[in-house]
Structure formats: C-alpha cells, structure tokens
C-alpha cells in the first residue's frame, strides 16, 4: 500500500488559492457565502460523487448531453451522441464489429481505456466495455467525466467515464418512431411508462434495427428490450432492471497499411471475411437495487449479473498483401457480476461522506479454431471466400479467465461555504485473476498450456477542489483542480492468439485544472481544462507477437466547450481540443529491428479536434440541427512515418413537427469522408474506415 505524497495533495489547494489571490488582485468581487447561483452549471450530476450535485461544484471536467438533445439530433450510437463533447472521438466499428465503437479520450485511442456505466452498472464488467449492447433508446441523459474514477469505480478506467442513464421506472420518453435509410436500412423504437400496479412503477423501452452499409456484405441486425420497475416498501425502495440484447453483425474488413499509406490494391469497400463471417451475441442482464434511509444516512445497494454468448467468425489478410488470410472461429461465454453497497452520511450541513464496498466479477471462457493461411483470394474483392466449416483447422486454442475486483472506499465532499468544494477519497483495491489457457498446433501437434494466478492489493486515491471566484445573479466563474491515481489490470482482448501470461496492471496518474462558468444571464455556459496523465506498464506486442508490459505514455493538452442559448429553442455549441499524446518509452519492433519511439506521437491521435453545432428544436413547426467535426493530422504508425491528413464530417437533421407527430430527414457523414479511424488489434497494420454517408427518413409520435 502507498501513501499519497503530501506534494500531490497540495497541488489542488495551491491552484485554488492562487486563483483566489488572482481574482482579488484584479478587483473581482468574491461571492459571499450565501450568494445563490442558478444557471447551466447547476445541472445535477452524479458520476464523480454518486451523490446528486450541481456540476459547478464538482472539481472535474464533466459534460452532460440531455436525452432530448440526443433525440433531436437522431443520435443512436456513441459517435453521434458524443459528437459535441470536447476532445472525444467514438467512431463506429472496430474489431468488435459494426455495432461497436472505439472511443478516444485525452488523445488515447484504445477500446478498453475508458469505463462505460449504464444505469449505475459497469457495462462489460471486469473485461471490456460492452458497446455492442449499449442502447440510447429512452435515455434521460449522458454524463461524460474526463479522467479516471479511481475511488468509486476502482480498477476500471484511465481516461474517461461515460455514464448512460435511462428514465427511471414509471417514467419514459413516451414516444415511438420508425426510420428508413440508405442501403436498405430500417430501425424503430418505442419507450413508454406502463400502468402502475398498487404503487409499483414500471416502464419499457424496445428498439431494433437492420442496417446496411457501403460494403454490401457488412450488416447489422439487432434488437434490445429494457424493463424497469420500482416499488416503495415502508421507507425504502426496491428497483429491478431486466435487459435482453440480440446482436447479429457481419463485420467489415480493415484496410492494410503498405509503407506510409493505406494500400490502393484493395477496393475501399472490399470484404475478405469468410462466407460465414459473423459476430453474434445474445446478452441477458438482471439488476436489483434497494435504497433505505437509516439513522446513519442513506443506504443504497445494487446487485447485477449478465451473461453473454458470442460466436465470432472472421478473417484477416496477411500484411504482405499476398491475398492470403488467417481465419478464426470462436465460441465465447462471458459472465459478469457487480455488487455495490454504500452509505451516504451528512454529519454536518457542509460535509457529505460516502463509505462503501463493491465487487466486480468476470468469467470469460473461449474456444478458438484457427485456420492459419486458410485461403488466398484476389485483392480486388471479386471472389467470395469459402466458409470456415469447409476449411482446415490447424490451431486450437482455449481460454478460461476468472477475475474478481473488490474494493472498500471512502469519499468526502466538504463545502465550507458557497464558494469552496473539496472532494477527496481513497480506495483499497484487491484484484484477483486466474487464467487457464492452451494452444494446440496440428501437424505436428505441439501443445502449450499454462495455468496462472495473480493477486494485487493497491491503494487508489483522488483529491480536488473547486472555488467560485465570482458570481452575479445566474452568472459565475469557478476554478478547479484535481489529482487522481488509478490502475487497471491488463485487459483480455479475446483474440485468436495464444497469450498465456498475466501481466502487471497498467498505472496512471493524472493532474487536471480548469474553469467553468456562465455569462449573459446564464445564456452562455463554458468550460475549459488543462490536463496531464502519465501512463506506465502499457501492454504492447513484442517482436515474437506476445504481449508484455513494455511501454509508457504521456497525455497532455487543453480542452474547451461553450454553449450559447440564443432563445429557448435555439442554441449554438462549440468545442475544441489540443492534444499532445506521446510515448514516454517504447522499444517498438518494426518488423526488422527494435526502435525506441519515445517522444513520438501515438497512432491515430490528432493534435486538434474541434466541433460546432446549431440546434433549433421548437415543439412545433420546423426543426433543424447541424454538427460539423474536424479531426486534424495524425499518424498510422508508432514511428510517425505514415501521416494522414485532417478531415471534416457533417451530421444534420431537418424536420417538421405538428402536434404529437414529427417527420424529419437525418444524415450522418454527409461529406462521405472515409479516412482510417480505428486500428485493428488482430490484423497487423490494418485499419477500419469511417462509415460512409447515411441518410434517414424518420417519423415519430410522442404522447408526453
């Protein structure tokens, strides 16, 4: 166990005191202890504290996207939902299939570096974020916290938390819609509050979609249902959530980098997967919660369990562009459980203490049938590859991994007056993992197997402070700073390769300072932050293809957002970020020799990200939204020899609402940009492209 150095504890206090001194010296009037402020920053958030608290109080960068805005912009995936959040990218697709995405925070573009929370439950458990079963139907709001959450959620996140909250039981968006799109696409959804039964509140949300793509073989067909119920019993409340998700994806093929650019030998929409390629998943989830006021404070407990069965069949071309492909046929089971119980006590008006314990359990079992060099096809994509059942299998792999992350935590929120807020917490983590894996190569048949376990006990902590340096009516300016120390056991990618070792956990320490505020009678709200994160024990591939803790990264930059509410139904929004994401150390094997790439930029990490949008959303008549995003120049390789230029995408909606009925056209990537946006972890030097332009005709009906 480690103690938090006093020098780090002092950082947040010094920043706050420095801001206070600067404000006084400039003649700004300090807010009095009882000055009320009500504006955009009074939006209640829960991600950083578990306790509902105005966003201006929280010493961290938090962006909130309302459910009404998501519906106005036709946002049904992470890419569109987070398109106005500063510094965040979430392009659809990747190794997990077209229903998935690979979000990027603070310049780090990795699938497992952030935490996804849905209705209070880590979605994906102790393994990877379960984006393929993420559902934005009936969403009340989305909160995006930059950086880790090392106290309340423990060993699960480094660079960001996305918290998706649906309407509670007995409430709903109360609407139904259907949409027809390009490539023969169809989607529909409905959400409604069901009739109550003797005080029992309930609601239901369902949706489904059948999506086509520019690649004629790429396809998505999925359906989801969420039932929520709640019942007051005495002074307490019982809650139940039940989810069912069915995902049927036919994956795209990534494009191979040849030298300093993507190859032109393969058509942009060519698909080299076997004829029976698919990523199918059936997921079922049940959560039960109970809240009860006690003499010691509010006691809240939540337990959940989810099971997923996955069939994953696909292939990847060799990077030599010979047309030869390796196939994989995987059967996977994932079970994840979550239990949290905490007590929230307010011993004094200015102090709130949260004390609790939680456990996160994961069990993943997989069998892989590989066909190495299974077939060779023309690079023009004119030949449909054979199905895997007609091909020889020359490698059989098994994996059985059990994980248990437990923690005991305490976090205090001290507000000595209306100006100050100090948030500090510590957590004792216990992480246990047992991994049993094997690899059998046929003809000749050498068998490799390993059974290994590891236990880690470690403290994580956070401390931060915010200070309101000025307030007048609904307007204010708040400065804040925080420090966070986090760690995360190495992820399991469930790939086709034999990876028997249990690696050391990846570790990160982050420093953040910024300001938030509102102006013009709260019609303008703004937020900006400076950050730095030091990342060690990064898991990378070695020259032999095995994984090892062999690198470090340094993320630094500035992010900002502003929103101007011109009228109740008209708003302008803009965000911008400047990232400097580099390797601190990494002896990278480039195919022929080891090259030290310390100081080089991380692949697919642009220096500049920017977005601007206009939202015109009256209750009746014409409605319109438009969002433009810019991603700057970046590199496709670790040695920074393969640059890719910047690009701009545009999303827009145009509709008409009359009474309870609405009709609209919706479009994403209207300029039809197809740059590389995500690297494959399974196909060497392979990249997935931004999905092509989609146009939808949407009709909806609301009875709210």
Textual characterization of the structure:
It is a single chain. The chain is mainly beta. It has one domain: Maltoporin, Chain A (Beta Barrel), CATH 2.40.170.20. The chain is built from three helices and 38 strands. The strands form six sheets. It has a 22-stranded antiparallel barrel. Strands 3-8-9-6-7 form a five-stranded mixed beta sheet. A hairpin with a 2-residue loop joins strand 6 and strand 7. The longest helix has 20 residues. The termini are far apart.
What are its keywords?
3 helices, globular, Maltoporin, Chain A, mainly beta, 22-stranded antiparallel barrel, five-stranded mixed β-sheet, 704 residues
How are the SSEs placed, and which strands pair?
Layout: H1 6-25, E1 44-45, E2 53-54, E3 62-66, H2 67-72, H3 78-81, E4 104-105, E5 108-109, E6 115-118, E7 121-122, E8 139-146, E9 160-166, E10 175-181, E11 185-197, E12 200-212, E13 219-233, E14 236-250, E15 255-258, E16 261-262, E17 278-294, E18 297-317, E19 324-348, E20 351-376, E21 395-414, E22 420-441, E23 447-472, E24 475-488, E25 506-519, E26 524-541, E27 547-567, E28 570-589, E29 594-596, E30 608-616, E31 621-631, E32 634-635, E33 643-644, E34 647-658, E35 661-668, E36 676-679, E37 686-689, E38 694-702
Parallel strand pairs: 6-9
Antiparallel strand pairs: 1-2, 3-8, 4-5, 6-7, 8-9, 10-11, 10-38, 11-12, 12-13, 13-14, 14-17, 15-16, 15-37, 17-18, 18-19, 19-20, 20-21, 21-22, 22-23, 23-24, 24-25, 25-26, 26-27, 27-28, 28-29, 28-30, 30-31, 31-34, 32-33, 34-35, 35-38, 36-37
